[in-house]
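> call design_seq(struct)
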């Protein structure tokens, strides 16, 4: 397809003298121009450089541009045309397309990437989803549809996933496509058994993009056995993994270390609080735990007070210090709670300050100040009431005080939130 015209002679006559005097041996035959050219290293390099410049016949060039075929003979046209394809067919912006085209190597024609896009569209991917998938994984355009992609999608269907589920799985977890079919199927089947439903599995995959990357043999199964040895039943394990799947993704040594920390804090493996405490301990660092201990010491708690509160309510150590500061100040200074009272009732410190603690305390104290006889009801009791019961008991019964009702209704909605 390529031809190279024979280069014209560079010199028409004998090269001029370099100025070092006349030849001292006139009788010897002078070297010819051709011989000098062959011996010259500069000419040799120039000839080699010219030999590598491709020249396309006009007819071939027209066909190349018209059909958008991609050839490795020239990197610039291929990269440019591939970038154009990514913009027009996949919806990528020019900058994304320019970067992605460099990863695609040699593509002979549009047929290959078109077949990949066609498969995605047949499973319900819209234009935005196609753009997201291809921009994140441009090399998927090089995959063989019949041998690689189609079998992956059929395997997901056989596992009970709808087209909508498959769309979410492929978008959120590249391992679905990048791993071998047998590997990804065995991983999904294991997780289906652990979390109990395809819906929860899809949600986990959407929240955790690394979710399907962990090895079953090296990570998941060994960690499951460790947790079962701690007395955690499959039902409890399922509940933990729905919210905190990291537990069986980490290295076995790290999991064992977390278990030791929980036991050192006085929570036995047989305790009902063990699974939740293990989850919290895995999430927080030793430094963070000590910071919470020092914070509560500032309000008069002893170390034993803090550890007792933590064992009752492990998530206390996961609440931000800024949030705890505001809650403690309100409960101690405005609500009149003694710090020792709160140490025995740490659940109060998990409740929303704006949505529950403040509005409920103010309406109860408002009723008392108006002479309403309310039995000795402690704050730890009425803040725990379900929203419906609290409204019936302290709002609907006292419509003669519309200003209180208005004050309560003006508080943020969803007061049941903690």
């Amino acid at each position: 397809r390529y031809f190279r015209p024979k280069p014209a002679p560079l010199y028409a006559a004998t090269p001029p003298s370099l100025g070092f005097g006349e030849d001292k041996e006139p009788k010897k035959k002078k070297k010819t121009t051709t011989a000098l050219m062959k011996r010259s290293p500069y000419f040799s390099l120039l000839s080699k450089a010219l030999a590598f410049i491709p020249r396309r016949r006009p007819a071939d060039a027209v066909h190349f541009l018209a059909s958008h075929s991609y050839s490795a003979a020239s990197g610039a046209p291929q990269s440019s045309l591939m970038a154009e394809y990514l913009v027009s067919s996949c919806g990528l912006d020019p900058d994304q397309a320019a970067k992605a085209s460099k990863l695609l190597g040699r593509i002979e024609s549009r047929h290959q990437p078109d077949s990949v896009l066609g498969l995605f569209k047949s499973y319900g991917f819209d234009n935005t989803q196609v753009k997201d998938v291809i921009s994140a994984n441009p090399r998927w355009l090089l995959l063989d549809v019949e041998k690689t992609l189609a079998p992956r999608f059929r395997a997901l269907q056989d596992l009970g996933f709808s087209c909508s589920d498959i769309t979410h799985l492929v978008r959120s977890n590249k391992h679905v496509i990048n791993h071998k079919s047998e590997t990804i199927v065995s991983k999904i089947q294991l997780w289906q058994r652990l979390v109990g439903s395809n819906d929860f599995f899809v949600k986990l995959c959407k929240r955790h993009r690394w979710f399907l990357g962990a090895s079953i043999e090296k990570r998941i199964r060994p960690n499951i056995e460790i947790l079962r040895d701690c007395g955690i039943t499959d039902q409890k394990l399922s509940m933990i993994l729905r919210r905190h799947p990291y537990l069986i993704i980490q290295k076995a040594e790290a999991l064992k270390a977390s278990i030791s920390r929980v036991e050192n804090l006085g929570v036995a493996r047989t305790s009902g609080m063990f699974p939740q405490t293990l989850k919290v301990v895995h999430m927080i660092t030793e430094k963070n735990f000590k910071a919470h201990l020092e914070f509560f010491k500032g309000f008069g708690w002893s170390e034993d007070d803090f550890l007792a509160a933590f064992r009752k309510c492990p998530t206390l150590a996961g609440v931000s210090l800024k949030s705890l500061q505001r809650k403690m100040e309100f409960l101690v200074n405005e609500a009149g709670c003694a710090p020792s009272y709160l140490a025995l009732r740490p659940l109060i410190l998990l409740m929303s300050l704006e949505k529950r603690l403040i509005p409920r305390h103010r309406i109860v104290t408002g009723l008392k100040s108006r002479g309403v006889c309310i039995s000795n009801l402690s704050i730890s009791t009425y803040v725990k009431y379900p929203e419906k019961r609290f409204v019936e008991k302290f709002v609907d019964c006292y419509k003669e005080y519309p200003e209180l009702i208005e004050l309560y209704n003006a508080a943020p909605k969803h007061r049941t939130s903690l």
